[in-house]
Write a structure and sequence with these properties.
Layout: E1 2-7, H1 14-32, E2 36-38, H2 50-56, H3 71-83, E3 86-88, E4 92-95, E5 100-107, E6 113-118, E7 124-126, E8 132-134, E9 147-150, E10 153-157, H4 166-174, E11 179-181, H5 188-206, E12 209-212, E13 216-220, E14 226-230, E15 234-236, E16 242-245, E17 251-256, H6 259-268, H7 271-274
Parallel strand pairs: 1-2, 2-3, 10-11, 11-12
Antiparallel strand pairs: 1-17, 3-5, 4-5, 5-6, 7-8, 9-10, 12-15, 13-14, 15-16
């Protein structure tokens, strides 16, 4: 399996974000011929105020239905159909009954929805630069561990801040995951110190491949305050090596998921068998 991770610089304009995602995916598909493409966290709407996020949010069709969805949902579905690839849709803003959700949707090359995952862990912190974040003011938390199969590879779902909570990733490994997607909008302040370290650590612990598409650069919050995300989208192998990475800026990278390497790492160091629950 060949995996492409997209690095975007989205803002609050949904149509512009979709156009940016379309250009990136078209170029990656044409040049690298991946089997699965992936987008970052909240690539459809980053920044703006609460009313902007609410306006950009989409009510998702019922799982397993062929009902039409919103603009971002339909873009992902049509991209899968037209490019004949799996599309791991990063995450988009879902309109829930009371709060929003930060939600991954995944499509197979026929445009059928394979999986849907709501971000579990909400980013309620003050960053080292003093900037406060309070996701729980707008978003609800998911409660389901989600995996799916793509071209014979078992894939696990996580989003951004989830990476700091290893229990989720052990659950994914126990459910058979070989590859875990981690779409993110990691802040610059935390990303420069923790992004690569956390991803490599989770990959080593679980002996899974990690594909982490991320947002990069400046966006504006509701009052026009600038915020910065770290980027450095990457793919890490089960031994913890960074095997592909995007530098600063908008772009993508592609690499091959080697299941033989996964099997060797797990056979040589069978940590799942050795694990003790304490």
């Amino acid at each position: 399996m060949r995996v492409s991770v997209m690095q975007m610089n989205p803002g609050a304009n949904k149509a512009d974000n979709i156009a940016q995602a379309r250009r990136l995916i078209e170029n990656a598909v044409e040049q690298d011929r991946p089997n699965i493409v992936s987008l970052p966290e909240v690539w459809d709407s980053l920044g703006g105020d609460r009313s902007t996020r609410a306006a950009n949010a989409e009510v998702l069709p019922a799982k397993g239905s062929n009902e039409p969805g919103g603009e971002a949902y339909e873009f992902l579905r049509e991209t899968a159909r037209q490019a004949k690839v799996h599309v791991h849709g990063g995450s988009i803003i879902e309109q829930g009954p009371e709060k929003l959700f930060n939600t991954t949707v995944v499509f197979n090359p026929d445009g059928t929805e394979l999986a849907r995952y709501r971000k579990m862990h909400l980013f309620d912190i003050v960053a080292p630069d003093g900037t406060g974040y309070r996701e729980s003011n707008s978003y609800g938390a998911g409660d389901e561990v989600v995996t799916y199969e793509a071209d014979g590879v078992k894939v696990g779902c996580a989003i951004c801040y989830d990476v700091r909570f290893p229990d989720l990733f052990w659950k994914l490994r126990e459910q058979g995951a070989e590859l875990i997607f981690l779409p993110s909008a990691f802040t610059l302040a935390t990303g420069k110190d923790h992004w690569e370290t956390l991803i490599r650590g989770r990959a080593i612990e679980t002996q899974c491949w990690f594909a982490a598409p991320a947002t990069w650069g400046k966006h504006l919050e509701g009052r026009g305050d600038p915020r910065f995300t770290y980027g450095h989208s990457m793919v890490v192998n089960p031994w913890g090596h960074v095997v592909a990475q995007v530098s600063d800026g908008i772009g993508w990278t592609t690499t091959r998921i080697d299941q033989d390497l996964t099997a060797k790492v797990r056979a040589d160091m069978p940590v799942l068998e050795h694990r003790k629950r304490v």
